[in-house]
């Protein structure tokens, strides 16, 4: 391996400055490497999140049909790839932490090197200045020497001018020689210190390069291992997708969604089951049933006639009760129930009136004789009522007779039932 001590000298003595700035660039390179790997971490993290989102979309895809198992394979593959990329992010983050730690140590080491090589820096500046002074003294000496020789060779020059030129020449010569001696001493000191500094700079640079290469090797190894695992995932995905043949997908669909293997059989005509019907009744039993029905109708007719004969007070009380019941019934039921109840009551009233008509027809034959006598009596009463004037109260209003109240109560009862 080549050494810095052999390649950083030169006329201008700028080797120290080059080596020092190269050491400072090492700190910049470590920070740039850290930023690079950090950006790669961000890319891998975003890619991992995108794969996770993709796996969720695959999971939300249709899970029915013959292609459903393939969606499951896609979901599992995306999840594994997302996990591998997230593992790569963690490994890269560890490398970034190591680089940052090394950068801090490197910064401290550079400060130490600066203090340690300050003597060499002073010698470098001194030799550079001495070199410039020697060059100027050399030029001045050459000019004074040429002037002195001109005056010596010039026969027309005065001795005083020749003496002045000689004094200047000797002074320039002494300055030139003294600077040469100083340069020799500075150069010897510069060489000693520069040799040590070159070795120190080379050691620092070797350590820096080894450290940086270790980071790069870790970075490359993490990428390689992760990509090998990713390759395994892709290979497994291909194998699983190849295993899901058309025949296998059809078989899986049949196994999970089968509805049976028996085909529907033929249907035959069957006779109706009449065992639950009651037995037919004889003519005698039918006559008994008709007679019992007629007796019930007669009892209902008698009850209705007794209610009408109780007088206007009873009919008023009954009408009020019916009105109250009809009000509560009207408020508690809907429109449909109202219509049904009205129809039902109309039928009941019609049936009751029909029963009354039948009873009257039956009783009319037996009551014809008594009817003539009753008609004569009623005609007399009507005459008397027609002849008697109506009763008037104290204020001059006509008093309603009792039989009129009875008629109004009966009509009100009939209307409420309707």
Q: How would you describe the overall organization of this protein?
A:
The protein has 10 helices and no strands. The two termini are 127 Å apart. By secondary structure, the chain is mainly alpha-helical.
Describe the SSE topology.
Layout: H1 15-59, H2 68-116, H3 118-153, H4 159-243, H5 246-257, H6 283-309, H7 312-332, H8 335-366, H9 368-387, H10 402-417
Helix pairs in contact: 1-2, 1-4, 2-4, 3-4, 6-8, 7-10
According to DSSP, the number of beta strands is 0
Task: Report the biggest beta sheet as strand number plus sense, adding barrel if it closes.
Answer: none
DSSP summary: helix tally: 10
Mean pLDDT: 79
SSE order: HHHHHHHHHH
Q: What class, by secondary structure content? A: mainly alpha
Helicity level, as a percent range? over 70%
Distance from N terminus to C terminus (CA atoms, Å) equals: 127 Å
Radius of gyration: 67 Å
Q: Per the principal axes of the C-alpha atoms, what is the gross shape?
A: elongated
Beta-strand percentage range: under 5%
Low-pLDDT segments, ≥5 res: 311-332, 369-387, 410-418
Briefly say what this structure is.
With 418 residues, the protein is an all-alpha fold.
Structural features:
single chain, 418 residues, elongated, mainly alpha, disordered C terminus
């Amino acid at each position: 391996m080549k050494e810095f001590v052999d390649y950083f000298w030169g006329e201008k003595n700028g080797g120290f400055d080059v080596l020092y700035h190269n050491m400072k660039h090492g700190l910049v390179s470590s920070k740039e490497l850290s930023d690079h790997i950090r950006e790669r971490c961000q890319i891998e993290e975003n890619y991992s999140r995108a794969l996770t989102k993709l796996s969720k979309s695959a999971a939300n895809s249709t899970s029915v049909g013959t292609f459903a198992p393939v969606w499951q394979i896609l979901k599992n593959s995306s999840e594994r790839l997302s996990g591998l990329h997230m593992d790569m992010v963690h490994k890269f983050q560890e490398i970034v932490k190591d680089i940052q730690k090394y950068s801090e140590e490197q910064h401290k080491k550079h400060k130490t090197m600066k203090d340690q090589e300050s003597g060499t820096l002073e010698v470098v500046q001194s030799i550079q200045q001495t070199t410039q002074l020697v060059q100027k003294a050399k030029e001045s000496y050459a000019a004074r020497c040429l002037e002195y020789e001109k005056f010596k060779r010039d026969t027309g020059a005065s001795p005083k001018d020749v003496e002045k030129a000689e004094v200047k020449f000797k002074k320039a010569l002494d300055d030139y020689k003294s600077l040469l001696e100083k340069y020799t001493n500075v150069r010897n000191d510069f060489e000693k210190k520069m040799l040590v500094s070159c070795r120190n700079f080379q050691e620092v640079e070797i350590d820096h390069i080894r450290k940086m290469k270790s980071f790069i090797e870790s970075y490359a190894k993490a990428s390689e291992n992760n990509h090998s695992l990713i390759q395994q995932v892709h290979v497994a995905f291909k194998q699983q997708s190849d295993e899901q043949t058309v025949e296998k997908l059809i078989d899986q669909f049949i196994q999970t969604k089968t509805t049976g293997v028996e085909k529907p059989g033929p249907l035959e005509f069957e006779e109706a089951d009449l065992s639950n019907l009651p037995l037919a009744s004889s003519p005698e039993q039918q006559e008994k049933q008709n007679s019992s029905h007629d007796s019930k109708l007669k009892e209902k007719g008698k009850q209705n006639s007794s209610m009408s004969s109780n007088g206007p007070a009873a009919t008023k009380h009954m009408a009020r009760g019916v009105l109250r019941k009809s009000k509560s019934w009207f408020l508690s039921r809907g429109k449909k129930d109202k219509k049904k109840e009205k129809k039902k009551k109309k039928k009941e009233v019609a049936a009751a009136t029909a029963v009354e008509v039948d009873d009257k027809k039956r009783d009319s034959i037996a009551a014809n004789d008594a009817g003539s006598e009753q008609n004569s009596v009623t005609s007399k009463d009507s005459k008397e009522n027609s002849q008697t004037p109506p009763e008037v109260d104290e204020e001059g209003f006509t008093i309603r007779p009792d039989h009129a109240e009875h008629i109004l109560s009966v009509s009100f009862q009939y209307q409420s039932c309707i």
